[in-house]
Amino acid sequence: MSDETMNYYEGLFLFPQAMAGRMSEMISHMDELLERAGAKLVAMSKWHEGNLAYTIQKSRRGIYFLTYFEAQPERIAGLERDSNLSESIIRFMFTRADHLTVEEMTATDGRQAIEQESRLKTEGPADKPAAEAPAAPAAPAAPAAPVATDGDTAEPESVVVTAAAASDKAPADEDTTAETTS
Question: Three-state DSSP class for 60?
Answer without folding.
Answer: strand
